[in-house]
Design the sequence.
């Protein structure tokens, strides 16, 4: 029982960076912008947050720095694709390649630095519930923040008027422009929000989850977050399910080793990547569902005349 | 809605006045020194052929496009309309030719997006129903837009404008998506609005409609005003002269000499892979050599799916439903079907019939490569260029040369090039979709004449079009497509616009279950009422 | 007064050529600024980064050595990119090529047959193609996004290589290091210039550039791929086989990357290690774009990117700067290129502010 509780709790923690990055990207994509730079943004967010926290000694400055770094990174992307009409796929790839280089460069001085592990925040009463308590309510603050983000994004997209406008722009920027919505400005905001969340996901990884900086430590989570958005057919609740499933797969290797199972370490490490491919295949087969849920203008440049 | 009447009669100012509007794009002068005045309650036609600058002018009024020079006066005061929301605040509504609706949300949400503030959806739904009853525009506010027919979508657009009590309503080519009966319903609604004091700017190139509906008109040609008139005092011929500067050309056709069947559709049924698409149900049609068969219908009733099934872009599971020159071709890809002697002019010119960012020479290679332009895998560029040059010459394509990008051509010239490219391949069967959509009158007449000439040479030709006038002008027999079904083809002499109009609602004699097939079909019910 | 972009009536061919030069220029300027911020003399740093590495024959040989895999992979990727087939997993295909070629080398260890090397080339190509066939199959059969699948497979390929050199293929006499035996002479590319590391692999890359030119710019298949990339509905209308082009695009990229991976283990490395590439598979994406997906452009861009690799190494040794500078410069180059490309289709126009501001307010009131 204890093991199961530990596994579930660990899966939630491991899935949290994915929750941040994928929910952010979900909002970006709902506005019709495909930002493939999540991986690079997470890396730069992670190293900025870590470096700031290590220098100032205050993790919250680090959190802020990571989010600002994410906004700046996605800002580059926004300028290229929304102002300069560059191809979104190429620009996203460029952002990731740049982020890999920049984070490695920035992170050099911090490679042997460690941060103190952050104590979890136990929610009074709730954390006392058997099983559920330790699984859900003994986490670091950012885990709770990610739940609030989920609630906020769900409400925003489906209950608020601004969310309706955002979705309509993702479906048809031409129509949205024709009835008078500022398409570029809203796409900007959605892109920057996605960047901030990717940065936050990176921060969670470097400051709270590990907590240390290793070059390339995001290790494909940015790409998995992109896959999660497809897997979730652009719906926030499914993003959560997917993120925790992947969190579970990520930590499987530690528990397997702990349980004395002799499976090749490299095979276990490759599970999240293989799982990503498998779920993508599973979801993509159903073209009708994708067609009904994917933002119609996703990845298509738009410029009002 | 009541205070509109008071305000409209309280002043003697024109509702809208445009003074010397000029708008220049890098490649084209859209409007030059255009002036126009419309009084309260006036139904004012803006008449001109494709490319005359009508839509640009309307977008300027609605704040979508900024003019380079000139002045817009609203109820006597000069204004700069900064954006559509500002236009709506002033009391201007616009129904776009290409609708500005969002498919994945409901009618009510679509309407809410164009209203100021944060309307409560239930209350809004009630108002939508109210307005739709008052003006005879039935529509269910809870339905998702992608499930609506084209006519219903137009109603949503109109209701959306009416909810903000417009004092000026702009209608951009509103009848191109309607059956003749539905057009009459629309005119009733517009007259009702006009009586209430609302000014209507009615953009069209259809002379008979303008004569029937409008009480004044501004005629545009090449971005400039060529005249103001009262359509009721004019004849279609006199307005046509103002519109194109000469008499409307009519193609020369003789009696058809039908030969053997070349294209046979035999029991074609196909489920559309697109959830928003139309399923084809048991279609039958034969096109013989030496005849032109037209297919009429309101867009979105399965035209695209039928054409894709004939061209092979959407292969169907069985071989027998599509027979080209005696060969069962249902499973063949487009290339194999072309090999059998079929050529195809698609509806979308840019992006399908031609690659926008490629030269005309490259675009000639696109489908004409079978004429020996490829040797051991490599392209013979000189021969491709010669072919493209010939096409440009024979079909009067105005362009910089065979190196010009397809994108840089006007719609009419690109269509002439595409038609030329297909016709120069000596087809046995020619399938043409919307041959003259968005094409200027001169080019349209030229293209129609070429199609008729080809029929006289013994080619079997299928023309799918939403322009009834055009179909009556060139077809030998006419069939109608509605809700994925195809009517029998009737010789053109034995039918008329009225009958085809009824058929366009899916109600031809033995259509039986077709009329009942879709219980949600508002379209059919309305046509029946009309 | 403000600046506004205005669409050109026709895209400017001149800007098509100028834009990469503009991007290179902007990258250099940004580099100057970066060096200054880091407290280095920018001129000296610039010299160290861009001139010092190629001051002699050996330097030139190193430049060409590193450019070889870049141009080879980039020209393969360009085939797919022209058809909008986004294979970004060349790094993984490179690793598989290295594994397959390494497997052949180890299997024939000690053989003096002159067929070992050609077999390694073929094996490398097959390895890369196999890895690229996975996204191709999933895309054509299940409509699965090839970007994500090919990228995921990079991680899997690296883990596979890591397992091989740690477990079954580990050199028993390698002091427990995760590496295979050193390949013998017959399994290594012969040197092209005596005394340098430049080898025959460079000629293979040049041949690939030539073949790429013929395929992309002169062949009908290449034309079809270009059509598919610019307007897929037009390709469908013309009857070009869409799935065939996805397969071709991915397999060509995979084969090129596989041969490049083979060239690394049969060239400068000479054995299998846990890492066989400093990110050539990703850098080649930048090369392909900066080279305008044109073989000649790719040739030039690969030299520039190779210089960035050498510069990064030099900066680490001479200036005590992290070699990650390389990635930074590569990313900036691509950013500037993507940004400069706007001038191909648009021009900058100076617009006066609307003088009717006052009237506007009046009207709204």
Sequence:
């Amino acid at each position: 029982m204890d093991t199961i509780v530990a596994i579930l709790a660990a899966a939630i923690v491991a899935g949290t960076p994915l929750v941040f990055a994928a929910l952010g990207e979900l909002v970006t994509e709902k506005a019709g912008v495909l930002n493939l730079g999540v991986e690079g943004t997470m890396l730069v967010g992670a190293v900025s947050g870590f470096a700031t926290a290590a220098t100032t000694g205050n993790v919250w400055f680090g959190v802020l720095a990571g989010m600002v770094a994410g906004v700046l990174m996605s800002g580059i992307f926004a300028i290229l694709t929304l102002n300069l009409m560059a191809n979104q796929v190429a620009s996203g790839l460029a952002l990731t390649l740049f982020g890999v280089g920049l984070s490695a460069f920035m992170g050099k001085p911090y490679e042997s630095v460690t941060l103190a592990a952050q104590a979890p925040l136990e929610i009074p009463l709730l954390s006392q519930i058997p099983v559920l308590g330790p699984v859900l309510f003994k986490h670091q603050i950012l885990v709770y923040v990610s739940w609030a983000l989920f609630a906020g994004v769900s409400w925003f997209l489906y209950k608020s008027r601004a969310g309706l406008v955002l979705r309509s722009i993702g479906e048809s920027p031409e129509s949205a422009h024709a009835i008078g919505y500022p398409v570029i400005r809203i796409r900007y905001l959605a892109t920057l929000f996605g960047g901030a969340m990717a940065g936050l996901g990176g921060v969670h990884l470097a400051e709270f989850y590990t907590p240390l900086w290793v070059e390339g430590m995001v290790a494909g989570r940015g790409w998995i977050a992109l896959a999660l958005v497809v897997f979730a057919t652009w719906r926030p609740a499914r993003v959560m399910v997917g993120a925790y499933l992947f969190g579970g797969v990520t930590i499987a290797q530690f528990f397997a080793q702990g349980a004395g199972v002799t499976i090749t370490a490299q095979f276990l490490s490759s599970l999240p990547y293989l799982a990503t491919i498998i779920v993508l295949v599973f979801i993509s087969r159903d073209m009708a569902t994708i067609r009904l849920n994917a933002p119609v203008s996703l990845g298509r440049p738009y410029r009002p005349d | 809605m009541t205070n509109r009447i008071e305000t409209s009669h309280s002043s003697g100012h024109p509702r809208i006045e445009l003074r010397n509007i000029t708008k220049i794009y890098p490649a084209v002068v859209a409007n030059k020194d255009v002036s126009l005045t419309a009084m309260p309650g006036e139904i004012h036609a803006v008449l001109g052929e494709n490319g005359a600058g009508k839509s640009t002018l309307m977008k300027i009024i609605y704040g979508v496009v900024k003019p380079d020079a000139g002045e817009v006066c609203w109820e006597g005061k000069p204004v700069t309309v900064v954006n559509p929301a500002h236009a709506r605040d002033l009391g201007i509504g616009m129904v776009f030719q290409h609708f500005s609706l969002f498919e994945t949300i409901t009618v009510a949400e679509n309407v809410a997006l164009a209203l100021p503030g944060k309307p409560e959806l239930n209350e809004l739904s009630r108002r939508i129903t109210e307005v739709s009853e008052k003006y005879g525009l039935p529509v269910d506010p809870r339905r998702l837009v992608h499930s609506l027919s084209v006519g219903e979508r137009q109603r949503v657009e109109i209701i959306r404008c009416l909810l903000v009590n417009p004092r000026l309503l702009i209608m951009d080519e509103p009848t191109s998506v309607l059956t003749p009966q539905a057009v009459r319903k629309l005119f009733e609604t517009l007259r009702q609005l006009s009586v209430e004091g609302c000014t209507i700017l009615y953009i069209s190139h259809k002379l008979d409609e303008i004569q029937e509906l409008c009480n004044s008109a501004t005629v545009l040609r090449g971005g400039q005003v060529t005249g103001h008139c009262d359509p009721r005092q004019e004849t279609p011929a006199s307005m046509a002269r103002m519109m194109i500067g000469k008499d409307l050309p009519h193609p020369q056709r003789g009696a058809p000499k039908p030969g053997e069947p070349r294209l046979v559709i035999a029991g074609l049924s196909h489920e559309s892979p697109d959830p928003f698409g139309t399923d084809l149900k048991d279609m039958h049609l034969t096109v013989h050599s030496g005849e032109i068969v037209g297919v009429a219908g309101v867009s979105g009733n399965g035209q695209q799916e039928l054409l894709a099934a004939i061209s092979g872009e959407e292969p169907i599971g069985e071989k027998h439903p599509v027979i080209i020159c005696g060969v069962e071709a249902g499973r063949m890809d487009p290339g194999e079907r072309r090999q059998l002697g079929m050529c195809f002019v698609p509806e979308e010119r840019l992006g399908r019939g031609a690659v926008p960012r490629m030269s005309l020479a490259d675009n000639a290679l696109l489908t004409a490569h079978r004429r020996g332009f490829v040797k051991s895998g490599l392209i013979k560029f000189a021969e491709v260029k010669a072919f493209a040059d010939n096409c440009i010459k024979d079909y009067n394509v105005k362009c910089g040369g065979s190196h010009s990008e397809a994108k840089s051509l006007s719609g009419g010239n690109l269509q002439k090039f595409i038609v030329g490219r297909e016709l120069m391949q000596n087809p046995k069967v020619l399938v043409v979709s919307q041959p003259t959509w968005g094409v200027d009158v001169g080019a349209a007449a030229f293209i129609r004449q070429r199609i008729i000439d080809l029929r006289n040479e013994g080619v079997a030709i299928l023309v799918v079009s939403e322009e009834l006038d055009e179909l009556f002008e060139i077809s030998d027999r006419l069939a109608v497509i509605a809700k994925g079904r195809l009517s029998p083809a009737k010789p053109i002499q034995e039918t008329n616009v009225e009958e085809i109009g009824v058929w366009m609602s899916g109600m031809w004699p033995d259509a039986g279950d077709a009329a009942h097939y879709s219980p949600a079909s508002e379209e059919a019910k309305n046509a029946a009422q009309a | 007064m403000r600046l506004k972009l205005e669409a050109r009536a026709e895209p400017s061919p001149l800007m098509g050529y100028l834009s990469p030069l503009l991007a290179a220029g902007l990258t250099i300027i940004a580099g100057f600024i970066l060096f200054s911020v880091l407290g280095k003399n920018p001129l000296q740093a610039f010299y160290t980064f861009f001139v010092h590495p190629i001051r002699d024959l050996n330097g030139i040989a190193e430049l060409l050595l590193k450019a070889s895999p870049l141009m080879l992979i980039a020209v393969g990727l360009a085939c797919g990119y022209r058809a909008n087939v986004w294979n970004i997993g060349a790094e993984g295909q490179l690793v598989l090529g290295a594994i397959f070629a390494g497997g052949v080398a180890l299997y024939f260890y000690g053989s003096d047959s002159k067929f070992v090397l050609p077999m390694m080339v073929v094996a490398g190509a097959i390895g890369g193609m196999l890895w690229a066939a996975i996204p191709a199959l999933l895309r054509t059969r299940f409509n699965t996004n090839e970007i994500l699948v090919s990228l995921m497979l990079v991680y899997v390929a690296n883990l596979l290589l890591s397992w091989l050199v740690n477990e079954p293929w580990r050199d028993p006499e390698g002091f427990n290091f995760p590496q295979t035996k050193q390949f013998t002479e017959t399994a290594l590319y012969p040197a092209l210039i005596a005394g340098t590391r430049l080898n025959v692999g460079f000629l293979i890359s040049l041949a690939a550039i030539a073949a790429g030119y013929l395929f992309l710019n002169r062949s009908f298949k290449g034309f079809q791929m270009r059509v598919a990339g610019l307007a897929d509905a037009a390709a469908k209308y013309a009857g070009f086989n869409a799935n065939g082009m996805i397969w071709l695009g991915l397999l060509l990229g995979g084969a090129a990357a596989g041969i490049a991976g083979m060239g690394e283990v049969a060239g400068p490395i000479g054995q299998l290690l846990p890492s066989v590439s400093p990110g050539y598979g990703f850098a080649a994406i930048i090369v392909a774009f900066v080279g305008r997906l044109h073989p000649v452009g790719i040739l030039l861009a690969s030299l520039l990117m190779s210089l960035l690799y050498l510069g990064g190494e030099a900066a680490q040794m001479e200036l005590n700067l992290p070699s990650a500078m390389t990635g930074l410069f590569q990313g900036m180059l691509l950013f500037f290129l993507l940004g400069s490309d706007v001038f191909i289709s648009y021009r900058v126009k100076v617009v006066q502010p609307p003088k009717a501001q006052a009237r506007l307010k009046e009207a709204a009131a």
Summary: The interface with chain B takes residues 6-11, 214, 218-221, 223, 226-227, 230-231, 233-234, 236-241, 354, 356, 359-360, 362-364 of chain C (CB under 8 Å). Residues 102 and 272 of chain C are 7 Å apart (CA to CA).
